[in-house]
Amino acid sequence: MDRRAFFHFSCRSLLYATVLCLSPRSLWGATAIECAFEGQNCIQRGEYDKAVISLQEAVRLDPGNDWAYGLLGRAYHGQGKNAEALAAFREAVRLNPDDTYSRMMSEIIAQKPVPRLKKESKSASPLEKEAAEEEAKMFNRLQAEEGLRYQVQRVVIDAGHGGFDPGAVGKTGLKEKDITLDIAKYLQQKLEGTGKKQAFLTRTDDYFVPLAERTVIANQYRADLFISLHINANPKQDPSGSETYFCSEQASSKEAARVAATENAVSKYDQPLKKKEGYIDVEDILFRFERKLYWDESGKFAKRFQDGIKNNLPLQSRGIHSADFSVLRKARMPAILIETGFISNPRDEANLAKAEFRTQIAQAIAGGIL
Amino acid sequence: MSLIPMPVAELKALINKLRTFTKLCSEGMTLNILTHLLTVCLVFLFSAVVSWAADANSLIFQGADLHYRGNLEEAMASFQAAVKLEPRNEYAHNQLGIIYARKERFDDAFREFSLVASIDQQNTFALLWLGILNLQKNNLDKGYENFQKIIQADPDNADAYYYLGAIYNIRHNPAKAIEYLKKSRDADAKEADTHFRLGKAFRQVDMVKNAQLEYGRVLALNNSYSAARNEMGWLYYNAGDYAAAFAEWQMSLKTNPRDSDAIFSLARGYNEQAWKAYKKGNQQDASSYWKKVLTVDPENKAAKYYLGKQTK
Prior knowledge:
- The complex is a heterodimer of chains A (about 375) and B (about 300).
- Chain A has helices at about 5-20, 25-30, 30-45, 50-60, 65-80, 80-95, 100-110, 125-140, 175-195, 210-220, 255-265, 280-310, 325-330, 345-350, 355-365; strands at about 155-160, 200, 225-230, 240-245, 315-325, 335-340.
- Chain A is α/β, with parallel strands linked by helices and about 375 residues long.
- In chain A, helix 9 (about 175-195) links the parallel strand 1 and strand 2 (about 200).
- Chain A is elongated, with a radius of gyration of 34 Å.
- The termini of chain B are far apart.
């Protein structure tokens, strides 16, 4: 045996001897179960330090022993080490979800502040490194605004109809799809011109986009506001003016309910959530809270847009209305539908045919955002 | 509350002890049967002790056990009896609060959590539920206040940071959402919902690498979290990697064939690619994409119309 091998052998022997001397196994020739019993006895005697040593040995020998983890939790708790106790009780519950005692103890401890256990540090993955670089670059841009005010940075503008669907058509042949696209483009220019807002269109040309995909586009860009532009029509020539719709649980009028019911006929994929009895889903509470806030904000935006149009354009105001529009409901942001005049009314049609009038509409809407 | 040295826990330990002893003496069949009989007797004794439980600790253990087993009515009765014996028992009141919330008796739940908070301002569990119930009542400011109180008492409380982050998420204030959700993630990295909301906040400010990282973490924790997969799809799509985006949405549909987000994201993506190909004069590709639209959304008006027009 060479000197190096002899040195290794001596060191190992010393190490094993030390471990054997310190280990309860060496004292009792113990298995994990026996160590756990010893730990339990120590707990009963109030010797928590000894109990922890025995029980740590027990879980080292048998990491799948939920009973030993439960006892370890009790021993730590006896020592006043709540973070360690919580971790042990949680591990016991993870191993055996029917362990009522450990589950209850973990809940009792977690009711109040528990110091955090030290985490193991690990090396960053390539994506984590890239993310950290990106975050460092973005740091200055991310100066947060305090307060709970709703913030709008990105707007998705939806030009109603398009392609084979002209929407309403006026007596002179003026088509709703062309007017809405024109106003949408003006509005985009106005918003982007400020350098503070980003605006996206659901369509940039004369093609058809199905209704359900329009709010998907808003979600695609994680927009803060969705504005759908439309022109009204009526079999009679008299009705004129603008009106604004937003989503709400209850329709503001019979007419609004009728309009919503017609539109909602298209949604067949979303079944109402079946609520499990005796089950509380906090994410569902958050979702409902979120939707209610978006609807409240939609109402505020609707009022601003309608006021802007009323005050700046020769268009009669027909007010704001609300109903449960499934298309607007799918948007994860405030969503508004604006009817900027009646193409069936000769005066409104004449106005809508003018480029200047369309820019004025865009300006009035932009005023409600900026 | 200190450690509960209740008889049931001791009995449980004894049962385990006997079972283990049986295992150790596997050769002794008679002993095994005897031990089994003893165990049955002890279990009987255990239930007898529990059913006659008169002290608060036993009632609390009984209530917790019934609650975990989903027996809300009996659990509620146990906790109600426990708080009569021990009116300041925070755990029992909190459990009653949860049971009331599960039974949609939100006002009663609110009363229980308020009582706990008045007994001890450090009971962050009660404060958290007060915050959640305030959100449930659409009371944003009060909910926000509850969560702020928690982080004053416990600067490591992952749940409070999560709800504060979620509130800013909902107010479309991504910078503040990121600030709080990162704290929540750092306190508890095992919550998929935290990573998901953080991913959304990062996407809102175009921090795509960070968003990708967080959605990836969601999926590592829960592979069937299709909302994260759908968001990941948009990250790829907006970066021009359409194949990867379509693969993510298709994967979501495998998890849930009626996932409307995945259906309409795919329809939107295919329709847009079809339209681009059509404008370039590449009829074959356009047709292929429109056909794909119809495989996921057979009633899609755009795909039906343009395909029909092509065949004419």
